C-alpha cells in the first residue's frame, strides 16, 4: 500500500504546489497546507481519474490528510 501512498502524495503535492517531501502523512490539507474547497475537489478529481473510480463529494470531509485519503480511496478502489 506504500506505493499508493506515494502516488497520492505526488498528486496532492502537485495540486498544492508543494514538494512531495513537504506533505506529511497526517498533515491536515486545510490547516497545514492552506487547501480550500476547490483544491480539495481538484485532488478528488485527479484521484478518480488516476484510479478510474467514483468517490462521492460527501467523502471530502474524510479526506483531510494522506492517511485518511488513502483509506477512502482504498474503499472505492478495492485495495
Low-confidence segments? none
* SS elements, strand count: 0
State the order of secondary-structure elements, H for helix, E for strand: HHH
Q: What fraction of residues sit in β-strands?
A: under 5%
Mean pLDDT: 95
Outline, from the CA principal axes?
globular
Q: Number of helix segments?
A: 3
Alpha carbon gap, first and last residue = 8 Å
For the largest beta-sheet, the strand count, sense and barrel status come to: none
The amount of helix comes to 40-55%
Any idea what the radius of gyration is? 11 Å
Structural class estimated from helices and strands: mainly alpha
Describe the structure.
The protein has 79 residues and is an all-alpha fold. The chain is built from 3 helices and no strands.
Short précis:
With 79 residues, this protein is mainly α. It contains 3 helices and no strands.
Give the helix/strand layout:
Blueprint: H1 2-16, H2 37-51, H3 66-77
Helix pairs in contact: 1-2, 1-3
Q: What keyword list fits this structure?
A:
mainly alpha; 3 helices
Amino acid at each position: 500500500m506504500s506505493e499508493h501512498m506515494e502516488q497520492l502524495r505526488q498528486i496532492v503535492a502537485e495540486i498544492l504546489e508543494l514538494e512531495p517531501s513537504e506533505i506529511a502523512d497526517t498533515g491536515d490539507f486545510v490547516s497545514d497546507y492552506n487547501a480550500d474547497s476547490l483544491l480539495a475537489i481538484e485532488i478528488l478529481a485527479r484521484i478518480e481519474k488516476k484510479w478510474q473510480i467514483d468517490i462521492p463529494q460527501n467523502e471530502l470531509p474524510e479526506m483531510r490528510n494522506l492517511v485518511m485519503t488513502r483509506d477512502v480511496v482504498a474503499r472505492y478502489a478495492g485495495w
